Amino acid sequence: MGHGIAATTHAALERIGNALSRSIEETRREQDEAYLAEATDCYDLERRMRDLDRGSRGAFTWTY
Fold first, then answer.
1. Full residue range of the structural domain in which residue 39 is found
2. Does residue 62 lie in a domain region?
3. Per-residue pLDDT tens over the stretch 7-25
4. Is 63 inside any structural domain?
5. What's the superkingdom here (predicted)?
6. 4, 13, 39, 55: which could form a disulfide with 44 (CB 3.0–4.6 Å)?
7. Helix, strand, coil % over all residues of the chain, rounded to 5
8. Which one, of 50, 10, 12, 49, lies nearest residue 33 by Cα?
């Protein structure tokens, strides 16, 4: 009986985690698209695309 509850809870938590992960990915994609849309010319767009490929955003890059 206890195993059924644990399995059900695990499955529910997994679904919640998957939904949150998709939401985070969608938000990140929207932010990236907005960042690219702010490009002032093709050279700026190419730089911004490279920044995203590298995982950075120029002045917005955090270093630890």
1. 2-56
2. no
3. 899 888 898 888 888 888 8
4. no
5. Bacteria
6. 39
7. 80, 0, 20
8. 49
Summarize pLDDT for 18-56 with one digit per residue, the tens. Answer: 888 888 888 889 999 999 999 999 999 999 999 999 987
Distance CA 39, CA 50 (A): 12
pTM for this model (two decimals): 0.59
Indicate whether 28 belongs to any domain: yes
The whole-number pLDDT of residue 18 equals 84
CA distances from 35 to 8, 19, 55, 61 (A): 41, 24, 13, 13
Would you state the structure tokens that stand for residue 57, as one six-digit string?
């955003």
